[in-house]
Amino acid sequence: MLLPQALERTIFTLYDTQDQLKRHVYERADRAFARGDRERDRISTASALRERQLAMKTAFIHAIGGIPDREAEMNAVIVGQVREEGYRIENIVYEPLPGYRVTSNLYLPAQAEPASPSPVVLFLSGHEPEGRHSDYYHRVILRFVEEGLAVFAFDPPGQGERVGEALDDAGDRIWGTGEHQRIGVRCYPFGESIARYFVMDAIRAIDYLETRPELDTARLGVTGNSGGGTQTAMMMLCDERISAAAPATFIMDRQSYMYAGGVQDAEQVWPGLTEAGFDHEDLLLAFAPKPLLVLAAEYDFFPIEGTRRTVTRSRRYWEMLGKEADFECYVEPSLHRYTDGMAKKAAAFFAQRLLAHPRDSAGHALPAVPTDKLWCTKQGRMTSEWPQALTLSDIVQRRYERFRSNNPGRPSDALAPDGEQWLRDQVYAGRAPCPFNTRHMRMADTDGLSTAYWMWWSQSGVMNSALWFGGAREADDRPAEVVMAAWAGGTNCLSRHWPWILEQCAAGRSVVVLNASGVGPHEPAPVYGQPVREMFGMLHKLADELIWLGDSLAALRTYDTIRCAEWITSVAGNASLSVYAPGNAWLSARLAALLCDRIGQVYSDTEYARLADWFLSAGEPNEDWMSAVFPGLLQYVDIAGPTTRE
């Protein structure tokens, strides 16, 4: 007789499935990448290029959920100044949305012709904890100031003075990537991306610069590296006011990065755009024929081969428009960083394109300013000085509150016709139906329970499995009641749930522990040593790739749950079927029940009145948390939250 701990360690050999989810997702993405290349290869005229530019800009803005309203006053305030030889710095706080404050610095060099407005470069910070006032970014900015360029730099959400008050389990303050991902998963259900707020901050920054008479925003540059390179690329799509751009250590191609294995923040994942044939080449061609400098690090974790491929393919768009001199690429043999060499190259590029009379700044390096002089607050953290100021987390929380107030009461389980069709399309699109072609292996009894291992094809190329405890193991011995159990880890986590399994079987029910896609023996190998089911682990990466494809891990597992219900029927006939789905697995189980009449009650280990309430809870990092991400769901589905068993 086996014990559950031993069963967890059992290696099932009916079919090798460890890489199947990764292979399935990558093959779908590869087809989309090839389709995008073919579409771009057909661009041979200026008019065709303009059509592609408009299509990609429209698709991107739709993917991130649009740009927030820009009508409100920004209430910009200069809260401090620093005067240095040849330039001064203003510490400025502005509000892209009412009560939502952004900390920033405006560097203003002394002008040879004071009456002449100065061109300005928007500097967008990457993932540095200190944000705009990190010593390293400050020195990059000073290279532009040396050339006589004004520079405006602000903190992204969760960085610099905009780090929130949230703490992780170890008591450390959450910043940057962690905060971006936590907020990002809360944006998805409304058909939004956290990227829209990064774009909003930058657009509103330009709106503010337009109010400054000493600045000429008709001569406006934008640059940043890493996450700042992402923001730069987004602004190249979203704001026509930009005259020249220098994205650094970001431009590559999506396919090379997918195979490299890295995971990105939520603001760097744009729903549906891979399926639409979009790639980094579209980020560049959308900016043609304006002056563009691509900056790259040869030893970057962003694959340099992807950068070189995209640059090589994109050069022809500037040549097509007779502007080949305005397309440049600079590669430095360095690690992932906005190097001093890149800073000098970018400063010279912007000076040549934006300044009427570029300076000769050779050999002149401005000394760094102490960090605390760049702060807009006394202690370097906005929430300490202005506790009433809204954070991005507050903005998203209010989005949920408005949703609940606009949808009062406990919602019905019935879906509106358009909601049901939308959900069905999301769950079934991209799937390749096939026969079950079931495998079956009897096991030794486990702690007194009869045990069998089953495998079947959920769709072509994707196999699911289950351990069946108690009741029927053969078609001629069918149980009266079956409970499908879906939880993170599947049959790899039997011990944790064993008392529940014993309780169900003692009540005369059969228990089928489901291993859906990426679960249990189908769990993919780790990436970069990160635990598979945790934030920035391999399942997070594959979930992101599905979101790029206009799909989601939640939708895929909803389909798996439906197929499991159909398979159980093929084995157990019309036995009563319920689903127990604790934690994040509840969402896929509940949505499956909306589309599959075969599934009866769905219950969990918690209770919430509303789906929106459950999303707020499930949005915190936990095991297999990306399985709760279903972009756009709350736009079409408003159902009661999970309940415990009646």
Task: Provide a concise account of the structure shown.
Helix content is 37%, strand content 18%. It has helices spanning 4-8, 20-41, 46-63, 135-146, 176-187, 195-209, 227-238, 254-260, 280-285, 304-320, 340-354, 382-385, 392-406, 417-428, 494-506, 538-548, 553-572, 585-595, 611-618, 633-636, and strands at 77-84, 87-97, 100-109, 118-124, 150-154, 215-225, 244-248, 292-297, 327-332, 439-446, 449-459, 462-469, 481-485, 510-515, 576-580, 602-603. Helix 17 crosses helix 18.
Structural key phrases:
20 helices; 646 residues
Write the layout of secondary structure elements.
Elements: H1 4-8, H2 20-41, H3 46-63, E1 77-84, E2 87-97, E3 100-109, E4 118-124, H4 135-146, E5 150-154, H5 176-187, H6 195-209, E6 215-225, H7 227-238, E7 244-248, H8 254-260, H9 280-285, E8 292-297, H10 304-320, E9 327-332, H11 340-354, H12 382-385, H13 392-406, H14 417-428, E10 439-446, E11 449-459, E12 462-469, E13 481-485, H15 494-506, E14 510-515, H16 538-548, H17 553-572, E15 576-580, H18 585-595, E16 602-603, H19 611-618, H20 633-636
Parallel strand pairs: 4-5, 4-6, 6-7, 7-8, 8-9, 13-14, 13-15, 15-16
Antiparallel strand pairs: 1-2, 2-3, 3-5, 10-11, 11-12, 12-14
Can you tell me about this structure?
- The chain is an alpha/beta fold and 646 residues long.
- It is built from 20 helices and 16 strands.
- The strands form two sheets. A nine-stranded mixed sheet has the order 1-2-3-5-4-6-7-8-9, with helices on both faces. The protein has a seven-stranded mixed sheet with strand order 10-11-12-14-13-15-16.
- Strand 1 and strand 2 form a beta hairpin.
